[in-house]
Every structure is written in structure tokens, then in C-alpha cells.
UniProtKB/TrEMBL annotation:
Gene Ontology MF: a single term: phosphatase activity
Protein name: PAS domain-containing protein
NCBIfam families: sensory_box (TIGR00229)
Keywords: Hydrolase
Organism this protein belongs to: Streptomyces lavendofoliae
A matching Pfam family: GAF_2
Domain PAS: from-to ranges: 154-190
Lineage: Bacteria, Bacillati, Actinomycetota, Actinomycetes, Kitasatosporales
UniProt-listed PROSITE patterns: PAS
């Protein structure tokens, strides 16, 4: 049943992929479907890429919310495109293939998927089902409406039974009678063990009687009802004293499938002046019996372990995949330096008589064996008991409880702690694997978006900024990027970012004062201690100045020193940026005081660093080649316009294409000899570098030949021969070439040759416009040209306008500006200066169509001014 829908259409352009990802992410998060967001984003990215990039059509994305999950459809408008399907004799594409990867991901991640065809479009859809959750569990995310909360068959009943020191039942409430069928007089005085179906662990003799003697315990077992059936229950046992000081245990039990949390105020003393009743000192809270997030489960485990053995501290470490190290994941009662993700070797995590964390260990006095438990060094703890967490014989972690007093623990406490560890090990391992799977899918989504962002720019500075912004705060608290210009150069601090913007300047100042990390080409993260050491020294010097122990004046950066020390006081790692077998820089990631990186984050950072290194090197190569290209292109343009006595000259030049300064159109204006000037405007077939090469040949050949004293026809005939000599690289060329002589009477004499080029237009003072030359054959096509030159006289106030076809062929749909449209614009330019004429022509071209010009364009105007009258 569909309960909600959201739809959007994305144009066939590259940026639509990122926009579609954001649309799906926002939609699913708004629906509260955070469990499937990452998978949905990855699949949508692949399918929309297929539509807008490969198929080249718009993509329609439809999100449908159902009771059990979400269905997403991506439609393109290219139904003829084949999709490889199983069962048709054609298999899905291999992972190394460029095509079909979106379908491979659908097959791997989706609950169901398929392809539907219509006459005008193709739909690729996938279904993601929400994971099942036990009744009563809760998870982070949007608040669930009341009507969507899980319901039970009836009100939740909490059975309360009180047990004496011998394990016999002394109290039995009405809810217990309702749940199990026994009236109070039927069970009072009988051992609870007669009713309990206890799940024993092989090799461990601890049972219900031992559990009742624990200070606090929670878990699942069964109670045999009056009909002989075993009823699964979730129970909490709390050790108390009755009014006579006798030890007693209160058991709170609910149906196991309801998974109720049963809690009591920690260590609340019982007032002996009041009559003891089983329910007086307790409060019942209904919620999740075990947090579905790993961190919450581990934290609650260490707190219960500490309370169970009445310890001062507790810790839990999880094994890495290779089981060679243990990673601190939860602590209580320990200083911040022992916080999460610090690592210790397995053989040193709980050493002692067993020399390994793989076996239980009891240390009666740590002062007698310094360094036996590295995690507790300098904490003041004297005695400790540690036990392994194992699943099917494989080490998955270590649980420890410590006390400040010596000789607090014996093998009996180790047995009790091992019993609890065996009960929790499978749940911890299941939660850990679930977390790893979520991290893996989240990492995949993160890397997809990171790759898309990095591929979207070739600007070096923007690439550096993106690298830092993607790591902070997702992967680290702060980030610094060092770059290496060449193998002989030292690393240079190029970019610094901190999640607190007010600390960026202090962090940059600190890193600038210490030597950069060594560029190591080997992959992986390496620890760098220099920033933390320098920050601590700076903070120490500041403190000494404040106390008057240093002779130098107090620095104005006292607050900054302390803030910086806190900001970089944790673990700092360096990842090499390697591209094309060369180290081009280092990515430095840092944590605040006493924090450590977890291995999964470092592996994700390493994947990101490889992508970022290639993007940074591509930006460097692009910048270098762009600089070379622009330098060469600038050499093809005239260095400047000469001042011609008695003639105004102005030129506007626009090359088509991003980053191009010169294209197939060109112009030139140069002195030939005293009082004689040459001018040219031409158009090489095509655009880009190939056309620019012919541009350079034409412009330089014109100058050389003209200064040899050759006339216009001879100059163009020799240029035609030079173009044909280029062979396969030759391109035909339209060219207007002329020579200009200013006259003493204020006019200007011109001799022009128009070889296949748009005709020059002459604007007279009375507003009439007429061609100033006749068309002749273009260059670069035939060997034998017979060209001639024409003479034109510009009277005072006249304008000669020369343009390339980028002006006359400006289009808007089926309309074209054309020669007549240009003449109409020029007619309105009477009395304007040469600069005003070129500006008005350019404005008319730009306004003629909404799209930017797609062809090169050159506009040359020469005007003979009227004589000044006093």
C-alpha cells in the first residue's frame, strides 16, 4: 500500500546526478527512512547517471513510500537502449565494465528490482525493505507519530517476584499470576529454579541460583507456566536487603517479545524504618531492552559490569578483523585519555597469568606488575579482572572491571563476569557487524558524492577546499593539506580547516611553525605527534607567563594557545596524496584532546585521499596546460594597436570556447613603412587550437610579406601557397586584407582585397551604408589565384566596418542577423566614434539571441574624424 509519493524531473546535464541524489536523500529522511537512505542514494546515482549521461535524456525520479519500505523508479526516454538481463542468454555486466554497473548494484543492494518498458520510455525500479525491529525498540531519527507506534495484545504486565537468600520465592504479585498462571500461595516458598528454564552456556556452571546472587542482572530465559509450556521472559534481577538486613533479590519480568527495560535507581538505600514491600523502592520504565546502536549497547554493558562487581571503572574493547589488536569502544570511570578507539595489542590487553586477552585474568595488585594492563596505566586502579568476549570460539572483544583497592577480585568474580560476557557476546557481535554494514554503505554513498564533487572542478584552489570540507567534520575535527610542487621541493601548507572557524587562524599559525610531515609514499595513515607536542608546549609557555615564571611578556595569543592545544591535542594522522606514482602532498587529519581515529574512518579517509590526489593532480595539469595554452594564444594576438594619424581605430575580439583567447577568427593592424599601415581580418575554418595554428601562420606571414613591399594580391597569393603547403593540416581561410594611407586633406586612402570574407561596409556621413569591396575566392582551396585590389577613399566622418561571420551568422532559432541586419545596425551609428561603433555592433549581436555566441567573433572599425572647428 502506497502511503506517500514524491517526484522530480532532471535535465540531461551532469549536475543533475548530484541534484537527484539530494532529492532522494531529503525525501527519505523526511519520511523517517534513515535505514535505507545510503543504499537508495547510491542506486539512484547510478540509474540517473545512465539516463542523463549515457542515454542522454531527461530522468524522471519517483519515490513511493510503502508500509514496509520504499520503491524508487527512474525513467528515461530512450526505450530502444538495451538493458542486459539475466535469463535471456546475456548476463549482467562484469564489475569492470563501464555499462550495467547500476543494475549490478540493484541486484546486490535492493530487495527487489526490475525494468519496465513503454513505447516512449523505460523504467528501472528497485524496492528497499525496512529492517524488522522488535516491538518496543527505538532508533535515532524523526519522531514517529503515535498512530505508527507498535501495539501489544494488552497492557504490558510486569511480574514482580521477591527471592530470599536461598533462592525461594517470598512474594508474587498479581501480574505474575496473570502471566504464568500460578497464584501466590502456589509458588511462595518454592525455589525460583523450579519454575525457570535457564539457558546454560557449555562449560559454564553458572545458573539461575548464581544469577540471583549478582548485584544486578538483566537477560532472557523462560518460566514454566501452569500448562507446562515455557513462556519466554525478559527479566531484571536486583540485589537488595530486607528490613532485617537479610540479602534478598527482586525480579521484574515481562514477556520477552515486548522487550521492556526494567531499571531501578542505582544504589538507592532502602529506608529500614519503612515496611519492606517488593515494589516500594523500584520504578519501572518501558523501553528498549538493548539499544539497537552499538555504542549505546557497549556503554550500558560497561556500566552494568561495573555495578555487578561493585567496581570503580570498567572498559570494553572490540577486536579488529584480524584479531591482532583490540580497540577501546566504551569506558566508565576512566579519564578521557582512555576514551574510544585507542588500540592495544591482543597479547597486552589483559596480560597476567594467562598472558593474553583470549583468557580470563585477575590482577590482585597492578602496582606489583607495572604495565600489565596498559589501558589502566596512571589511572590509580589497583585490581582488575578481564574476560574475553567470544562467539563460536573466536575472540570478538574483552570486558574488564577495575577497582582502586588492591585484592578486590578473585576467580569467583572472574566467573561471574565471564558469565555476563557470554550472555552479551553474541548481541555485541551482531550489533558490531550491523554497524560495520551501515558504515560500509554510508562510506559507499560518501565516496560517490565525493568523487562527483571532485570531478566537477579543475580549479586547484577549489579542489583543496573541497578536500578539506569533505573531511571536516565528517571524518575529523580539523584538516590540513600540504602540497609538493615537484620532487625537489619541500611540502607547503596550502589549506587549513577546523570545524570551529574561530580556531582556524590559531591552527594555521601553529602548523606554520613546525616542520611539515615527511612525504612517505607508502599507503595508509601514519601517526604524526608534532602538532600535539607543539600545542602542549605553547600552552605550557602561556601558563608560565601567566604565573610570572617566564621573563618574556605575556603573548596576546594566550587564549588562542590554549584553544589550539585543545583543538589538536588528540591523535593526528597523515595520509600521502599519491598520483601517477608521485607524492604530490599530504592530507593531515586531527582530533581534539585525547581522541583517537577508528580504523574504519582511516580506511575511508585513505579511499578519499586517493580520489583527492588524482583530482588535485588533474587540477595541477590543467592549470599548467591552460597557462601554456593562454601564453601561446596571447602570442597569436597583436601586441597592440598602432596610433594612426588622422584615423580612429577600434577592435573587439571574442573567441568561442571556455579558456580560449584565440580561435579561428583573427585580426591585425600594423605599420608597413612610413605613413602606410596594413590591416587584416580573417576567419579560419573551425575553432579551437587547430584553427589557431593557421591563425598564427596567416598573421605572421601577412606582416612579413607586406613589409617586403609586396602588394595586396601578391601577399595573399603567397599566403595561399603557404597554407596549401601544410598538407593535411591545412584549412581554408577567408581574409580581408588592406593597406591604408592617411591623406593630407584629412581623408584616408585604402586598397583592399576581399578573399571569400564578408564584405566590408562603408558608412557615410549621410547614414548610407554600402559594400566597400567585391567578393573574390577564399584562400587554401585552389593553387592558382588571380586576385585584385580595390581602392576606397574614406572621407571625414566615414566609417569602414570589417567583421567575421560570427557577427553576421548570429542565430536565434531560424532567424539570422545577416548582412542586412548588420547594415541596419550600422546605419544608426552615424556620428559615433570608432569605439562606440564596435560597442554598438557587439551589443546588437548579444541581444539578437539569448544563448551565448558559439562562434568566434572579430569586429574592426576605422573612422576618419571630421576636422575640428573652433
Amino acid at each position: 500500500m502506497i502511503t506517500a509519493r514524491a517526484a522530480a524531473t532532471f535535465e540531461p546535464v551532469g549536475r543533475s546526478v548530484a541534484t537527484a541524489r539530494a532529492f532522494v536523500r531529503d525525501t527519505l529522511q523526511g519520511w523517517g527512512y534513515t535505514d535505507v537512505v545510503d543504499d537508495a542514494v547510491v542506486l539512484t546515482s547510478e540509474l540517473v547517471t545512465n539516463a542523463v549521461i549515457h542515454a542522454g535524456t531527461a530522468a524522471d525520479v519517483l519515490c513511493l513510500r510503502t508500509e514496509n519500505g520504499v520503491r524508487i523508479e527512474v525513467a528515461d526516454r530512450y526505450p530502444e537502449r538495451e538493458v542486459p538481463l539475466q535469463g535471456t542468454g546475456r548476463s549482467l555486466a562484469s564489475p569492470d565494465s563501464e555499462n550495467g554497473r547500476g543494475l549490478l548494484l540493484c541486484a546486490a543492494l535492493a530487495s527487489r528490482w526490475g525494468v519496465d518498458y513503454a513505447p516512449t520510455r523505460k523504467h528501472v525500479w528497485f524496492q528497499l525493505d525496512l529492517p524488522e525491529r522488535p516491538v518496543g525498540t527505538r532508533s535515532a531519527g524523526p519522531v514517529v507519530p503515535t498512530e505508527l507506534l507498535p501495539v501489544t495484545d494488552e497492557r504490558v504486565r510486569v511480574a514482580v517476584a521477591q527471592i530470599d537468600r536461598h533462592g525461594a520465592i517470598t512474594a508474587w504479585n498479581e501480574d505474575a499470576r496473570h502471566l504464568f498462571g500460578y497464584a501466590a500461595d502456589q509458588v511462595v516458598g518454592k525455589p525460583l529454579g523450579d519454575l525457570a528454564a535457564w539457558p546454560h552456556t557449555p562449560g559454564i556452571g553458572t545458573g539461575i541460583a548464581e544469577a540471583l546472587r549478582l548485584s544486578r542482572w538483566e537477560g532472557s530465559y523462560g518460566i514454566r507456566g501452569t500448562d507446562g509450556r515455557v513462556i519466554p521472559v525478559y527479566a531484571s534481577h536486583l540485589r537488595v536487603r530486607d528490613t532485617n538486613g537479610e540479602p534478598s533479590t527482586v525480579c521484574l519480568l515481562v514477556r520477552d517479545y515486548e522487550r521492556a527495560v526494567l531499571q531501578s535507581p542505582a544504589r538507592t538505600p532502602v529506608d529500614s524504618s519503612k515496611e519492606s514491600r517488593a515494589t516500594d523502592p523500584f520504578e519501572v520504565f518501558i523501553g528498549s531492552p538493548a539499544p539497537d546502536d552499538l555504542d549505546g549497547l557497549l556503554q550500558r554493558t560497561v556500566e552494568r559490569a561495573r555495578d555487578m562487581l561493585d567496581g570503580d571503572a570498567a572498559f570494553l574493547l572490540l577486536a579488529t578483523d584480524d584479531e591482532t589488536e583490540l580497540e577501546v569502544r566504551a569506558t566508565t570511570g576512566l579519564p578521557s585519555a582512555r576514551q574510544r578507539f585507542a588500540r592495544v595489542p591482543v597479547e597486552a590487553a589483559g596480560t597476567g597469568r594467562y598472558s593474553s586477552a583470549r583468557m580470563p585474568a585477575v590482577h590482585e595488585d597492578l602496582t606489583a606488575v607495572p604495565g600489565a594492563v596498559p589501558l589502566l596505566n596512571g589511572t590509580g586502579m589497583r585490581s582488575v579482572v578481564t574476560v574475553p568476549l567470544k562467539v563460536e570460539g573466536r575472540l570478538t572483544g574483552s570486558l574488564g572491571v577495575a577497582a582502586e583497592a588492591a585484592r578486590r577480585y578473585t576467580n569467583e568474580e572472574a566467573l561471574r563476569l565471564q558469565f555476563a560476557a557470554d550472555r552479551i557476546a553474541l548481541a555485541v557481535e551482531s550489533a558490531r557487524l550491523g554497524e560495520l554494514e551501515r558504515l560500509r554503505r554510508g562510506s559507499l554513498s560518501f565516496l560517490v558524492e565525493a568523487s562527483d564533487l571532485l570531478a566537477g572542478t579543475l580549479d586547484r584552489d577549489q579542489t583543496l577546499a573541497l578536500m578539506a570540507q569533505m573531511t571536516v567534520p565528517t571524518l575529523a575535527t580539523w584538516c590540513a593539506v600540504y602540497t609538493i610542487a615537484d620532487p625537489t621541493s619541500d611540502p607547503y601548507l596550502s589549506y587549513v580547516l577546523h570545524e570551529d572557524e574561530e580556531r582556524i587562524d590559531g591552527l594555521k599559525a601553529l602548523l606554520s611553525k613546525i616542520p611539515p610531515p615527511e612525504p612517505v609514499p607508502s599507503p595508509g595513515a601514519s601517526v604524526w605527534t608534532a602538532p600535539a607536542d607543539a600545542a602542549r608546549q605553547a600552552a605550557l609557555r602561556t601558563s608560565m607567563r601567566e604565573l610570572g615564571l617566564a621573563s618574556s611578556p605575556v603573548s596576546s595569543g594566550i587564549g588562542t594557545s590554549r584553544a589550539t592545544a585543545a583543538a589538536v591535542g588528540g591523535e593526528t594522522v597523515v595520509l600521502p596524496l599519491v598520483a601517477r606514482n608521485r607524492v604530490i602532498g599530504m592530507l593531515t587529519l586531527g582530533k581534539p584532546s585525547d581522541d583517537h581515529f577508528r580504523q574504519e574512518i582511516l580506511e575511508l579517509a585513505e579511499d578519499l585521499s586517493r580520489r583527492a590526489a588524482l583530482a588535485l593532480d588533474n587540477a595541477r595539469l590543467y592549470s599548467e596546460r591552460m597557462a601554456i595554452s593562454q601564453s601561446l594564444q596571447r602570442s597569436l594576438l597583436p601586441p597592440g594597436l598602432p596610433r594612426i594619424p588622422g584615423v580612429e581605430v577600434d577592435v573587439i575580439y571574442r573567441a568561442a570556447g571556455e579558456g580560449n583567447e584565440v580561435g579561428g577568427d583573427f585580426y591585425d593592424l600594423f605599420p608597413i613603412h612610413d605613413n602606410a599601415y596594413g590591416f587584416a581580418i580573417g576567419d579560419v575554418c573551425g575553432t579551437g587550437p587547430e584553427a589557431a595554428a593557421v591563425t598564427g601562420l596567416a598573421r605572421h606571414a601577412l606582416r612579413l610579406l607586406a613589409r617586403e613591399g609586396l602588394g595586396g594580391p601578391a601577399v595573399l597569393e603567397r599566403l595561399n601557397a603557404a597554407i596549401l603547403d601544410e598538407g593535411a593540416r591545412s584549412r581554408f581561410l577567408t581574409l580581408l586584407y588592406g593597406e591604408l594611407w592617411p591623406q593630407e586633406d584629412g581623408s584616408a586612402l585604402l586598397k583592399v582585397v576581399c578573399a571569400g570574407h564578408p564584405l566590408p561596409l562603408r558608412l557615410r556621413q549621410d547614414g548610407t551604408v554600402e559594400p566597400a569591396a567585391e567578393p573574390q575566392p577564399l584562400l587554401g582551396v585552389i593553387d592558382d589565384l588571380e586576385l585584385y585590389e580595390e581602392t576606397v577613399t574614406l572621407d571625414p566622418g566615414d566609417v569602414l566596418l570589417c567583421v567575421t561571420d560570427g557577427v553576421t551568422e548570429r542565430r536565434e532559432g531560424s532567424r539570422m542577423l545577416g548582412d542586412d541586419g548588420l547594415a541596419d545596425v550600422l546605419t544608426a551609428c552615424t556620428g559615433l566614434t570608432a569605439g562606440a561603433v564596435t560597442t554598438r555592433i557587439l551589443r546588437a549581436v548579444e541581444r539578437f539571441a539569448a544563448e551565448p555566441p558559439s562562434d568566434d567573433m572579430a569586429i574592426l572599425a576605422m573612422r576618419v574624424p571630421e576636422p575640428h572647428t573652433d
